[in-house]
Amino acid sequence: MQERMSQTCDVVVLLSGTGSNLQALIDSTRTGDSPARIAAVISNRADAYGLQRARDAGIDTRCLDHKAFEGREAFDAALTEMIDAFNPKLVVLAGFMRILSAGFVRHYQGRLLNIHPSLLPKYKGLHTHQRALEAGDTEHGCSVHFVTEELDGGPLVVQAVIPVELQDSPQSLAQRVHGQEHLIYPMAVRWFAEGRLSLGEQGALLDGKLLAASGHLIRT
Ligand code: GRF
Q1: Fewer CB within 10 A of the end CB, N or C, for the chain?
Q2: What tens-digit pLDDT sequence spans the chain (220 residues)?
C-alpha cells in the first residue's frame, strides 16, 4: 500500500456555474480531519454563483474570462499560469463548461479530476438525464474520473448508481443524481488527498490496486 501523505493537499477548483459540488467539497474539507484544502476557486464566468460560495467560505477566487482570449490554447495557457500560482497537488473540475486543450490536460495528468452526471461511458457530453430517460434506462447515476485527452473518457474512480423511477422527469433525475455527486466527489478528493488514489498506466489505482473499469461502485 502507498504511504499516506501526512501534509495538506492543496486543491484548486474550476467551475462555471452554481457550484453545489464546490459546496459539498468545502463542507467535507472543513470536517477537521481531511487533508484536502481548497486553495482557490477559478471561474471563466464572473457571475458564477460558485464564486460567491467560495468568497463566503473565505477562499481565494479568480475569474478568467475566456472571451478575452483568442483561441483555446491562449486561454488555457493563462489558466494554467493562474492555477499554478497556487501550486496545487490536485485540480478539480466542478461544472467547468470548457473543453480543455490537450496541452492543458497533459500538464495536469494524474492530478485532474472531473465529475460527470451519467454512468460513463454512457452519455458523454450534455443532456445526460434526458438521454437516459429516452433510452428507457432503469439505472442512471454519476461518475468521477481522471481527465485525459478524450472528453469524459478518462479512467473511472467512482460511480454512484441510482434506480430510474417510472415517474421520473429529467429534473427529478437530475436532482437525485446531484445528491449522489455531493457524496462521491468529496470521497474521491479525500482519497486523492490521503495519497490513496492515483492514476497508473492501466487506469485508476486505489490503495495501490487497479480499480475495475467502472471505478468503485456505490448503489443506492
Ligand atoms: C454537475 O451536474 C456535474 O456533474 C457537471 O456539472 C454540474 C455542476 O453542478 N460536471 P454544480 O455547479 O456543482 O451544482
Answers
A1: N
A2: 444 445 899 999 999 999 999 999 999 998 878 899 999 999 999 999 999 999 999 999 999 999 999 999 999 999 999 999 999 999 999 999 999 999 999 999 999 999 999 999 999 999 999 999 999 999 999 999 999 998 889 999 999 999 999 999 999 999 999 999 999 999 999 999 999 999 999 999 999 999 999 999 999 8
Residue 176, all three cell numbers: 437525485
User: Is 116 annotated as catalytic?
Assistant: yes
The reply, when asked if residue 20 is annotated as ligand binding, is yes
- The answer to whether 112 is annotated as binding is no
Domain with 88 in it: 1-108
| Cβ density class 33-49: b for 16+ within 10 Å, e for less | ebbbbbbbbbbbbeebb
Longest dimension (CA), the chain: 49
Q: How many CB atoms lie under 10 A from the CB of residue 216?
A: 19
**What is the domain-level CATH number for residue 35?**
3.40.50.170
Q: How far apart are CA 124 and CA 127, in angstroms?
A: 9
Q: Per the omega criterion (within 30 degrees of 0), is the bond before 121 cis?
A: yes
Is the distance from the beta carbon of residue 197 to the nearest atom of ligand 1 less than 6 Å? no
Domain count, the chain: 2
Dist. CA 81 → ligand 1 center (Å): 24
124, 104: one domain = no
Cα distances (angstroms) measured from residue 101 to each of 71, 81, 105, 129, 154: 10, 14, 6, 26, 14
